Prior knowledge:
The chain is an all-alpha fold. The chain has helices spanning 3-29, 34-67, 81-88, 90-121, 127-135, 142-152, 165-173, 188-214, 218-226, 231-242, 244-259, 263-268, 278-288, 292-323. It is built from 14 helices and no strands. α4 (90-121) runs parallel beside α8, α5 (127-135) packs antiparallel against α8 and α6 (142-152) packs across α8 (188-214).
Amino acid sequence: MDRLGLALLAIVGVPLVTCGYLVVGERLLNELPPRVQRAIRPWLWLAPAIALLGVFLVYPTIETIRVSLYGPSSQHFVGLANYSYLASDAGLRLTIRNNLLWIVVFTAVTVALGLIIAVLTDRRRYENFAKAVVFLPMAVSFVGAGVIWKFVYDYQPAGAGQTGLLNAGLLATVPGFSPRAWLILDPINNLALIAVGVWVWTGFCTVILSAALKGLSREVLEAAKVDGANAWQIFLLVTLPCIAPTIAVVTTTMVIFSLKAFDIVYVMTSGNFNTDVLANRMYTEMFTNDNFGRAAAIAVILLVAIVPVMAINVRRFRRQEEQN
């Protein structure tokens, strides 16, 4: 079957099968006693979603763990040899260092900028316009953002015409400035890549935090003003504690993205010049080195790193629901 046929089967066939399953299931369920119906009906409707989760989430996870215990061609069992190799590999330690840099710098800057913009534009006449401008980069794919900023960081030797916007702008405004190869110099190149991620994701943080600010009670803010609190005190002692759960959610979202950052690094440097990250190293091991075992082992490492962050997020949601 060609790709068009498979696409039509997925678009038309899957919904039809699901609807048929639910119709037949409900008819059969109606023949049972009411008590049995109440016990089975939730599982009847949840079963398709559980099946999809099993096929597209649980099974790939188990298979990835299995492949990580095999050699390059996934035919010979090697146990923990892939993990042992990665643990002693200096290149992987460098990628972990870069991911930690992404986690700290990227997360802190995006959340801080998003909060600052949300607070400064809250209930202003230009609020919608400002948020639209900041959110606009989210409409650009990460590959597109990498291409755009690769031109911004472009470098030509001193004395030649600068085609990169950053070098050209600094050369025109900063006396004695010498053009720099931003994507080659370590650690500036890592910060340059992180800046692209900040450019894309700040709008997301702004919109989410702005929505949280809209949910603040005006009476509480007015009461703080009546008590003599200035704007800075209101922000620190009233606004910040009230939106702290939202800040925590946005922060964990940014941490997860920074752990699986790939597109920007791959497009702009391909992991060269000490800019490699875990997701890009996994891609290299699989598609360049043809070593599926090591690629799967790196995927498992990423999974282990992300799961605790997700667990903290889920626990926070449950606490919030209990309080409400």
